[in-house]
Design a protein that fits this description.
The protein is mainly alpha-helical and about 150 residues long. Helix content is about 90%, strand content about 0%. The chain is elongated, with a radius of gyration of 38 Å.
Length: about 150
């Protein structure tokens, strides 16, 4: 019996990207820990009590069934997990390379901008010196002309 508010909250939860990524990681971890715990139990049980001679094989078949009962078969899951790991490493390499290229471009661009700025300041100073020199020369000529 779900009311509209509960449905809305569930929809918000399932559309939340953190839940989407975290839920499947949590689900995989629960599966793995469940299998590991069962394996430990069965192996210790086999050592304590040998009433079931092939209980280890039975357990392994049950574990395979449990894994296959999940979203994908274990072999496919292992392949995808390996591919995901390699893609994460490749993405990290590409991000690092892109950061280095951007840093190089920014440092080169900053250096070029600084050089252009310094040249324009130097030219402006030269122009100001020349204008002041011309102004004083003109002022001297006017002063000499009035005497």
């Amino acid at each position: 019996m779900l009311n509209d508010e509960c449905k809305t909250q569930m929809e918000d939860l399932f559309t939340n990207p953190l839940f989407k990524t975290g839920f499947f990681d949590f689900f995989v971890k629960v599966q793995q820990e469940g299998i590991e715990s069962a394996r430990k139990y069965w192996s210790s049980y086999m050592q304590q009590n040998s009433l079931y001679p092939n209980s280890g094989d039975v357990y392994e078949r049950m574990a395979d069934f449990y894994i296959i009962f999940g979203f994908v078969p274990k072999t496919r899951y292992d392949e995808v997990l390996g591919e995901n790991k390699s893609l994460k490493e490749e993405n990290k390499f590409l991000r690092d390379t892109l950061r280095e290229v951007q840093a190089g471009l920014f440092s080169e661009g900053g250096k070029k901008a600084q050089d252009v700025w310094q040249k324009s300041i130097d030219k402006q100073l030269e122009i100001n010196k020349e204008i002041s020199k011309n102004f004083f020369d003109l002022f001297r000529m006017l002063k000499v002309g009035t005497k």
